[in-house]
Amino acid sequence: MEIITVERKVLKKNDEVAAENRAMFERAGLFVVNLLSSPGAGKTTLLEATIRAGEGRMRIGVVEGDVQTDFDAQRIVATGAPAVQIVTNGACHLEAKLVQDALAGLSLEGLDLLVIENVGNLVCPASFDLGEAKKVVIASTTEGTDKPAKYPKMFRVADACVINKMDLLPHLDFDVERFKSYAREINPELEFIETSARTGDGVAGWIDWLSKQRGA
Amino acid sequence: MHELSIAQGILDIVRETLRERPDAVVERVFVDVGALVAVVPDSLDFCYGAITAGTPMEKSELVIREVPISVRCRDCGGESAVESFVFRCPHCDGSSLETLSGNELSVTGIEVQ
Known about the structure:
The complex is a heterodimer. By secondary structure, chain A is α/β, with parallel strands linked by helices. Helix content of chain A is 35%, strand content 22%. Helix content of chain B is 24%, strand content 32%. Chain B is elongated. Classes of the chains: A alpha/beta, B alpha+beta. At the A-B interface, strand 1, helix 6 and helix 7 of A face helix 1, strand 1 and strand 6 of B.
């Protein structure tokens, strides 16, 4: 009987490709955000609002990730920003290799910011490094006050949390301060940005946060 | 979460490690699973059994060590365990914490006959 010492990470392959992505982004001087949320929280709508409001200030490119359709990439392209669509055909999260392959179809030249819009899912995407600089989770007011406690890993790994659909507050029992305190228990340093992607409220503050992270 | 592909990943590591030893009979595979990793040990064990059935690895056993979350406070230097995902330093109530353990998902050893 013999015990062979191994010490090999199971997700090593994803981590290695993520590191390659990260190195490529750094060489290109590109700031990259992994945008995460449950389905329907407002990732694409916020991106559309960001691209419109950021015009002249920040050139944005997008990698879209969905199980099916290229609806989201089409929406982004309609705003005038470049986008490519990853269709996972069933995978519930993006992995570094999918992003690396998709980037072959997107010119990074002239871009200040690349956003990778992940598959709508508050669980699995939290575990897969794509090579991004920052992870941002969007939680919308319609999803409920207690979501940070119910999805601790996602809120732990996020660098910032956008609270979206603030315009719907009058119709909901959503408690913004309680939501933040649930989130701060898990991630005391989490930054919050409140927005309504639909009305545009708070989008300027979100762009300020992005600019600050870029070091611009 | 994806225990099946993780079980496959574990098998891939075992096969790569034992490439030079095709006659080795694997008794146990030791795996660390951190509490932050969102992998359910029972599911992982089940999936491992499902994919090794009918293969030379069929009799091998997965030994899972669940690693709890521990942190070091950047303010006071104190180390502590994290319960129920509450990340606060119990010594100084500080909130700037470095995660020391809980993120592991790795094959640490293989026992062969």
